[in-house]
Amino acid sequence: MSTLENLINIPDTPQFQELLSKDLKRISLIYFWTSWAEPCVQMNKVVEGLAKAYPKLLALRVEAEEQADISDSFDINSVPTCLVIQGHALLARIEGGDATQLTETIAKYLGSKSSAAPQSTPSQPPAPPSSESQEQLEARMRDIMNQSAVVLFMKGEPDAPRCGFSRTAVALLREKNVTFTHFDILSDESVRQGLKALNDWPTFPQFIVKGEFVGGLDVVKEMKESGEFDDVFFG
């Protein structure tokens, strides 16, 4: 465990939001990692070194799978991923274990005396295709939701998940011998954003049974533990 005051392991969303909102002029490094990803071993050392070298830097370590809401709010699809932000502005997004790029980025914003806020704004998700109305998009999403008795909206393919949450979801369904089809939300941004509104659920994966949304990964895990799973998925 680090003893650096500016290097903090995030235990929950409220503390994460509180730390970021304390000083909107401060440069923050948000580091998403997992214990099973080998590149994170080296990046852990890099992030700790940067926190030590730049006392004014706020470095927040977020365990991507444990803090699913935070990960999904920033569209984290792989680890390690580092975000450099100031206030509500995204200054840089560095995916993979590129220690050189991360070090140069931090030096760019903290290596000089300038404190002016960069004129940068977070990237926005692409708008739905102009040829597809909201009504058509919703109809298409419902068609996908009804393509089989159980549909998993996930990142990637069942045999090649693109995030740990999707990997866990596939393993859970296979463990319970559930026959299911899937939809890769990374292949269609309109569906990805539309489902969040349609099902009133901001994260993925999402589980659909008989055309109805039943919950995200945490909800379905609880169903398994409580014994409700079979009634919902096989009932």
UniProtKB/TrEMBL annotation:
GO terms for molecular function: 2 iron, 2 sulfur cluster binding; disulfide oxidoreductase activity; metal ion binding. GO terms for cellular component: cytosol; nucleus. InterPro entries: Glutaredoxin (IPR002109), GRX_PICOT-like (IPR033658), Monothiol_GRX-rel (IPR004480), Thioredoxin-like_sf (IPR036249), Thioredoxin_domain (IPR013766). Residues 113-138 are annotated as: Disordered. One of its GO terms (biological process) is intracellular iron ion homeostasis. The keyword Metal-binding applies. The keyword Nucleotidyltransferase does not apply. Transmembrane segments: none annotated. Residues 15-107 form the Thioredoxin domain. Belongs to the glutaredoxin family. Monothiol subfamily. This is Glutaredoxin. It comes from the Eukaryota. PROSITE patterns: GLUTAREDOXIN_2 (PS51354). CDD domains: GRX_PICOT_like, TRX_PICOT. Monothiol glutaredoxin involved in the biogenesis of iron-sulfur clusters. Binds one iron-sulfur cluster per dimer. The iron-sulfur cluster is bound between subunits, and is complexed by a bound glutathione and a cysteine residue from each subunit. Residues 150-214 form the Glutaredoxin domain. Keywords: Iron, Iron-sulfur, Metal-binding.
